[in-house]
User: Which sequence fits this backbone?
């Protein structure tokens, strides 16, 4: 009978590039791909700033029979911050008013490398370890398809029958895949990490009425444990991007790394959220985004003195859509690129320095200055002045009121 | 010589209703109106929760020769929160990403009463004490014109020549208007207060690179002085409005009063901002909005489990426009009312309870629950389940990707 | 073999309500449902104004073995226009700038009846005859699921193997399903019709460089064949809905019927379009919407004198989203309902009369008047006047220009 | 007495550049500027395609005492279409759903030249002949201030007392300003013309219930007088701009000129509108935009096959705002430029050819083709195919429906 929809092993796959972390799950996937498709597997392991060594992943890939020339390990931290995180922060992107999109923004970068490596090694497929209920599968696959419309995508979690922890472990044991001791028990939550953030979701967090365990956090000290003395930090911006901290010019990844340290030390950037997934259900996530939280505050502050009102309000109006596009996986879409062009156009003179005070979870704007400042003391002072004729306000109000008055008259007032 | 535009004393005014605080400035205005227009002056003093006694205003009005029947003093706190603050919070309104619109939202209410009193007493004009450089003149006047298109509006600050402190004081002394001792010196900043917030702007705050003096704040303790133990608070919502705190049902003004106390005690709700005025320049303002800051977090949290994604994202997209309308003074406009209808429609099932942790400036979501919750553990769990077929995700992704793939193919990929 | 995704006959179905036209395709579906699921089939045939007799559908259903109590035939024309077409026209909805959504708007109505009948007769499933490549399957199913989240939906075209004309005809012949003579050949295009429009797509129209055959059109004479004398028509509106024509009060369906006659006689309402389907590809459609084309022009014209500018521009900004929602099948969604609340709020005073001239394909506004008109000759005249002080314009312009001037100065001008 | 607001002769003006048509009104202004300000007057007369000789303007300026080196006459037609009209058409801009912005788009160009000439000749002011009730004063002045924040703007119609026809004529006669015979009577309407359109408004058109006189139109034959045979025209596009007609490559102004001829001959492009002015009232305007009407239809048609859905819908959503900005005079604003960047980004592959049929007022799309077409017959056909798996639609629908189903369940369904 003709197969229906997607089905394990059904596709002909010659060579597949797998997004490989070196962990248990993607190691099982590696083996399963070999067995199910009888194909050559190429691994791609990226340093996105998740804070893990990559060499163990290489070792493990070799152990699982991957040829050295099929093992790709790349440090993509600068690319990640420069080409993905920074453009997104130019838009002040927040999903559902609060979420800094730390997971969402990393996925297109990974797919970009998967597709590029596939072209290099002549692979016809890519594979990822995201489940069938989440957003990440969508983000991986939309990006991959947008970059290579002919690529095959294998999503083992939607295909195989290793759908319980027990079966997965059994499969791994049978194939002599090394299993770290702590992997035998059920993890209380799953995490995703990169230079922008770490997320937690699942099991122990599933009741949105219950606070998370303080012990869970890894990127920030508890605000209650943070120093009593505030940390002041000065962030320099050029064309909307942070280019230096406290007088020292830094690369994009260095900026974010430093802001993570400063924010994390001061208990900044925790978020507990029930969010709407693109696949249709609500889920609860906890995020730590110390550097990103600082950066957003700083960017809004530098914009506050350098950005024209019309441009600023326009940006604010398109931002929710932009954030939604990134959350939903449409980074490589014509509409995200068009909004990016709009956003980037507004950043041409977003230059200057912002001073922030970090203290026990708080990010407090303590100053902003710019060679391109649009803030003009002479226009805003209460003094008599020549630059602004207060009587102009009357005409301004009268004409703004005219349609409201005509409307009221038409209603018989 | 033919008068051009607005000009002091030029209009014929029979009777004018003045928004009267009892302070020096509006007392001078009171006198000036009498002298300039030779007209009867009616005073309106409102308790908006600004934290001042109103009886002294009555006394002072009497002293300045206002007839008792021309003195209107009203406690409008419940009306303010119920009909203005709460509808605005249903929209999660933030101006320029951060400002809770505490001043903006009070102005239409005052104008509403001015116009109503004018109708009651047969006055043909209203007057206010806002200057010619600010937003408040616009808000007062647009509201007044929208409610009574035939009303005359007198804005003495745009008309008279008392444009320096010295001249104002001289004028007051000549007319024996009582001057509080602290009014002789120049105030370091001007403030506006009501149940939602207090604002500070001007002189001492004019350099946006300089932090405000800690001594300035009046509504919140410094986060550094706040208690070491967190305060947990549970806020109950019905149709998007807060109706109870910690199990006690409260009126709108009681809710906000209580949240102000709780927030203020924990150093919550301070904001230092450079904002874009409707009249065209940037200005720097400092705000304390303790209760409002708590309320916004709570409202977003209750929406996070009760609001459909489509409705939530739509609201987020129209919010900046809605906030801009309120900031600019268009509360009584067809477009604000139309967006309100949209917003209110989404709040029909925004019921439930949010638990927040207030601590040293932080507002942390600690739990949310609702009889109308859309969060479904069975749909979000990693377990195998019958309700969600993971394989549906493939079709979902494939069709979402189709236009991106066709686009890539057309570009020769 | 383990079934993957949706599969014919796989679901347990007890009783299914089929959207039944009486034509060959849905008759085959009827039989196929009986055979495949062994279930009771209930038919629903609606008079949406498609211009076909319904009694033959009843006869045919009986012939195919449907019990009389399982045959539902309803005239839903008034409901269609009143509850679906008119609300949509209040928004001036156009998909992709030009398409009046004639097919899209009928689908949710059909699903509403399918789901209601399912509840009445105790059916657990509904079925429709839309294909797997089009928008209609989405519209039918999203509506059905939104109205009954537990309903099963059967879409035979996505399931069966009758995927060629030959097989379909063979299946019909084997089951002695009557086949109209003209059904043996391949139709040059498929159509969908209701009181709002008729659409054509497929085969003969597939090359977007080629004009359609003039003989195809059925709802409008060719502009070239239309009368030389224009038809003037006056349409009366109340709260944004057309309620009368040429002085005669009419029901919603009567209004649209009459406008179809008048528009059709004058060659009005043809559209040749390449549009973007929700499922991801572009398709070419030809539409005739004579009455709708007239109605849109009339509605815009009555709004032009009765709607406030702020409300009008707001509506225009949300319209594309609203049209997209309807096109994509989200009629029964919280966000469509929220936008509807916004739109309806603006229509409260959209009353009056519009005079149009219909002539050889043209719809020309020839006049508009309203008891609620906001057009005021005294304000617009070039004469000197007391109502509008031209000098107010200076202040209006100066303050609107201020930020632009400050921006230019900051750029060194 | 201190002057209030703007006042004639009050400003010190050294040298002023006047937008000079050579007509009676701007000739009177010329004289009035000399007399009122005792300043040197420089004239700028532009060929925008309004269809008038420019040499008589030179003669008249000389006659009125303007030095030859102070007379600037420029043919700006190519600049107008290339830098203003075409960018606007990339956005498919329509104000209030129907108006092609023919007057609005010309004003910033004129101001640009006024300001440039002012810089060349060392003038400190510019002047225009727009009245105090219209939009044009706003457009002229916002553009001038944005380009030179220090420029003075003189708007005689808001300042002088020549506010009746009689006084204006008397003033002209006294100064021996030549008056064309037809200028003695009152014109039945005022017009504005350029290569994009001609407008009519005022007196004879003031009752929106009355049709305009057929004799008024000058750019198009009456549809009733248009040829019986249709005109087919093929328009070639590159990156969203029309670059050729019927196989002949043309410059921007040539394209628009040719489309005006073709459209005008076929009675295309008339519009009768009540619109909302920026200054607050509604006004009635009649427009002829033959070439623009054709161009809009062609541009939408070429986009229909070359533009991605996401980009297309995004453009449609921002279009009303973009059109409003241009209508209101904010061409030279950061937000218009930001939206332009968005729009231009989408046009990168909007290449190809559109075939239109022009006939008695109708513009009918007769074909579109493109080397970058996204229309794919193989994806849209009803046939069985390998490229599109119809069963993907099930998952697509199921996940799109999920939130709607969960919502229905939460409502107890």
Assistant:
């Amino acid at each position: 009978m003709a197969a229906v929809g997607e089905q394990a092993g059904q596709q002909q796959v010659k060579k597949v590039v797998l997004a490989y972390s070196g962990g248990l799950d993607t190691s099982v996937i590696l083996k399963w791909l070999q067995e199910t498709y009888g194909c050559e597997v190429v691994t791609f392991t990226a340093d996105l700033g998740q804070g893990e060594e990559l060499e163990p992943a290489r070792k493990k890939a070799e152990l699982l029979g991957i040829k050295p020339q099929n093992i790709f390990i790349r440090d993509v931290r600068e690319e990640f911050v420069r080409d993905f995180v920074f453009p997104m922060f130019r838009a002040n992107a927040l999903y559902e008013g609060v979420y800094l999109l730390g997971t969402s923004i990393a996925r297109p970068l990974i797919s970009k490398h998967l597709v590029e490596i596939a072209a290099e090694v002549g692979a016809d497929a890519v594979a990822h370890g995201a489940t069938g209920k989440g957003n990440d599968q969508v983000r991986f696959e939309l990006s991959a398809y947008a970059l290579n419309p002919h690529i095959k995508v294998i999503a083992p979690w939607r295909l195989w029958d290793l759908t319980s922890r027990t079966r997965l472990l059994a499969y791994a044991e049978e194939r002599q895949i090394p299993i770290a001791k702590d992997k035998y028990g059920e993890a209380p939550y799953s995490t995703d990490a990169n230079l922008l953030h770490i997320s937690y979701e699942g099991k122990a967090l599933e009741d949105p009425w219950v606070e998370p365990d303080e012990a869970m956090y890894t990127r920030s000290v508890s605000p209650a444990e943070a120093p009593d003395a505030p940390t002041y930090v000065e962030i320099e911006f050029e064309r909307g991007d942070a280019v230096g901290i406290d007088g020292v010019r830094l690369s994009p990844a260095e900026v974010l790394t430093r802001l993570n340290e400063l924010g994390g030390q001061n208990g900044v950037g925790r978020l507990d959220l029930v969010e709407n997934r693109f696949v249709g259900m609500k889920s609860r996530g906890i995020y730590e985004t110390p550097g990103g939280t600082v950066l957003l505050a700083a960017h809004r502050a530098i914009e506050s003195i350098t950005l024209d009102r019309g441009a600023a309000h326009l940006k604010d109006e398109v931002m929710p859509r932009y954030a939604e596009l990134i959350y939903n996986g449409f980074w490589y879409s014509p509409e995200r690129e068009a909004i990016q062009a709009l956003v980037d156009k507004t950043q041409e003179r977003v230059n200057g320095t912002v001073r922030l005070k970090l203290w026990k979870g708080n990010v407090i704007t303590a100053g902003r200055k710019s060679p391109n400042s649009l803030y003009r003391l002479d226009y805003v002072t209460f003094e008599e002045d020549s630059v602004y004729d207060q009587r102009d306000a009357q005409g301004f109000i009268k004409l703004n009121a005219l349609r409201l008055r005509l409307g009221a008259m038409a209603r018989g007032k």
About this structure: The two ends of chain A are 75 Å apart (CA to CA).
